[in-house]
User: What shape does this take?
Amino acid sequence: MAPGFLRRPRLAAAVVLLALLAGPAPAGAAPERGGRGDDGGHHPRGRTVDYVALGDSYASGYGGSDVVAECGRTAFGYPALLDALHRVDLQADATCAGATALATDPAPPAGPVDLPQQIDTVLARGQLHRGTDLVTVTIGGNDVRFGDVVAACAGPGLPATCAPAITGAREYARTVLAPGLAASLQRLRDAAPQAELVVTGYPHLFEAAVPGALSVPAQELFNAGTDELNAVISAQLPGDAVFVDVVDEFAGHGIGSPDPWIRLEGGPFDLHPNAAGYEQGYLPAILADASFDDRRGRHGCR
Assistant: This one.
């Protein structure tokens, strides 16, 4: 689908600039699917995991494939990859490229659906309920004006223009994003008290110390800003919810590396994980950190 899913127009200009600065980069081949086996080595025999996916483009798989469905969803987003496991049953994929954690006011007549709207939808349709086993969420990047930060860090005068943009995003995350996200996550926990609530972070986009798309200082600032956003997100989790940090999984595969898992080709999917990023980054991280099979065993099998 067209780059209309990118909530802020400056992101499109920024990724073009980054692509021009970086020059040609290998696209990153998509690995074969299903290498983990039917169960991914993870689920108890005979039990079905009822699953609901929420979040933004990093959840929907925007970038995992050039074949894009409604709201930027692709077959290589981690919801689809989890659903392909033998006993995981994806009840609803409400992820949407461009989505924010905070409610949009006024709500756009069409376009990205924010997290509160996603929750409203799956509740109204009966897809999220007290018997749900697994809920995943990736959200927050669009709230901190990701596109504006990229544009600032890709412009002239670095890192002078990059640092203030990251500082502004950091303060917004701490003072505005944090309480709104905490409220939505608590709402999910209340609606699905038995579910494993899994909230993922964001990877480092750049292989810092490899000059190219951004100066090395700007790359380091941007990656440090990602760490701070991840820390704010993880601090909002209720109770026994799980935060999945994907930074280590993506290490060595940022923009500028020989085998990048982040796209930078001068197109609408730039700055999103490619298929390898989802299959070898997000999916293994979620399977390693989540324990929804054990939770299912504790709560019983319907």
Summary: The chain has one domain: 49-299.
